[in-house]
Write the structure tokens for this entry.
Amino acid sequence: MRQANTVGGRPRPRADTAGREFWDQLMPDEATALERASRRRDYRRGAVVMREADRSDWVVVLRTGRVKVSVDTASGMEVVLAVRGAGALLGELSAIDREPRSATVTALEPVTALVVPVSEFEAYLQKHGRVAFLLMRTLIGKLRDAARKRIEFGAHDTTGRVAARLVEMAERFGQRTDDGLKIALPFSQDELAGWTGASREAVSKALRALRSRGLIRTGRMTVVVRDLEALRARAQ
């Protein structure tokens, strides 16, 4: 008999959870319990969800919208660490070690989130042991991603790093069109520069090089990846 792929009307979490966001890995009863422990909050585009160095005592699960995670250098330059979408868990490091926030989270578009007090989140994890294991996997995934990006900074040129970030966004947020994978994200060249550790001028040059090879097409706040495999090869 074929196994059902839903549980209580909700998709059954797959055994392979690699690359999937925290919320998407929860079973229906786990998701319901977390919702009951939270309050729903909306953020407008540009709103700060969490601020670096703050000592707030809650975690956030994104339900809709996308955010950027960033830190500011001593010189005032913004360094983008990640772009996170619906389902992502944010603020878990401070919830675990009770240290100040390690980064600022800013809404790139209107966002709806579940805000869970740390005390409620701890009680939730104690009651749902499987979710505590998922949390560990989530943290390990973020550590691996950070390590991979550090290697990229040392081993790849600016064009390669820009290509890598476009591949990441296309795979996670790309919408299939006749021309390729469309990345519709209000993400500026300055922010892309902060994500790749390059100047805005160097990022503009890299985008021109990728356009000239026919790998991408750019528009206002949009990029269409026309050849994902070739772009991935350039990122390596």
About this structure: The chain is about 40% helix and 25% strand. Residues 1-18 have pLDDT under 50 and may be disordered.
